[in-house]
Amino acid sequence: MKNILFVASEAVPFIKTGGLADVVGSLPKCFDKNEYDVRVIIPKYLSMPWEYTSQLEFVAYFYMDIGYRNKYVGIFKLEWDGIIFYFIDNEAYFGGPKPYGDVKWDLEKFSYFSRAALSALPVIGFKPDIVHCHDWQTALVPIYMKDSFRGGEFYQNMKSIMTIHNLKFQGVWDIKTIQALTGLSDYYFTSDKLKVYDDANLLKGGIAYADFVTTVSETYAEEIKTPFYGEGLEGLMQARSNSLCGIVNGIDYNEYNPETDDRIYQKYNAINFRKEKAKNKKALQEHLGLEVNEKKMMIGLVSRLTDQKGLDLIAYVMDELCSDDIQFVVLGTGEEKYENMFRYFDWKYGNKVSANIYYSEDMSHKIYAACDAFLMPSLFEPCGLSQLMSLRYGTIPIVRETGGLKDTVEPYNQYESTGTGFSFANYNAHEMLGVIRYAEQIYYDRKREWNKLVDRAMAADFSWDVSARKYENLYSWLLGW
Ligand code: ADP
Ligand code: GLC
Fold this sequence. Notes:
binds alpha-D-glucopyranose, 6-stranded parallel beta sheet, single chain, 19 helices, Rossmann fold, binds adenosine-5'-diphosphate, 2 domains, 9-stranded mixed beta sheet, alpha/beta
């Protein structure tokens, strides 16, 4: 039996701001239980729903030195769906209304969390063979493992993996501040380690120090070696290319299943979708005040509203798109300029466009089920889960060919009758519009072809089965099995 510890800043069902939480919450369940004991450690946020907080069991507490501070560390525990989750408690750090906010404060919070997660291990009596870290918030873990935790029997031989879910966020501040927050010595603040120009970069350190680095799709693993996608770390990604690979994300096929999903208006499956799926569209049209017409092509978008997601392409051609015979449903929160952009188009095209500027797990499922197509024209996309959810619900993705979108959506080929979606290559609004219009044409004029696309989309398998085996292979290779 090998012990694996996931260290991360979010995990479903406890706390979620994006796809990271889906991965950290669903992947651990998919490992071979006879060979791997996989546990997860996350912060105990005050903003976690009471239905979970109320079930946590107190384990222990201690005080920990970090930099010039001495801090309380509480440990709670909950077994959920067969997986043991640990929660690090310190309300001064995790008491806010949401997991992230002010960058500098986040740096202090997650420096504390990374050290606390490692310090807690002997206390809870779990000795991982591999510590699997996710994104910049936990990037200090591989560094600490080779620093103050190196001596002593307990941490000896422990390996680390750093998984990059998004290279855009790196955890950067000036060296003096980071040194004070982390307690790391001068040794670490050179250009081959944490230093970038005059700043300190936590993710850079994590990537440099981890025994292995992964990212969440094969294409993104290649893209981040180039200046366009490398976010300034392309040199380091190239340098680590012998110990870097991409493993595409899966989704939880029990949670996202149109046949059993209680959140949607009408359940359906790969056999009866032709009759049943559109009932979801009709109910959603009624609910959102759109023209009620089962035959209208409905395009959905569920997303964090940030630059990453290609929303300026949509802004650029939205008037043209709305002159077509379509409906557009948005669910998302994020940058104010995008929130207002969608509110404006909702006001302008009331019975065609519905902007839902809030976060709702419930509504997201309703949209995945109701729409005919799902738009995801991302500027970059490490993997993307929304397109996988769409495929699962027979909602045809229209995507830009980047990162995981390229790896998971096979473009429609009308001559060979293959493909699961539509895609375009360049970051160009009219190229996107052209492809949306091609999809409209198939939807309206060649309905049987469209339904075959839906057949293929629903038959595509993006459960964790394949990718969890790839992580298992990586773990055993790293441990010299
Ligand atoms: P990212 O992690 O970059 O945000 P992903 O596609 O990997 O993108 O994952 C996004 C996840 O967040 C999906 O599960 C999606 O359904 C969910 N999501 C995004 N915005 C909302 C929202 N406003 N309400 C509910 N779920 C949302
Ligand atoms: C990040 C990426 C997204 C990916 C998710 C889970 O948030 O933006 O593409 O699917 O992490 O790995």
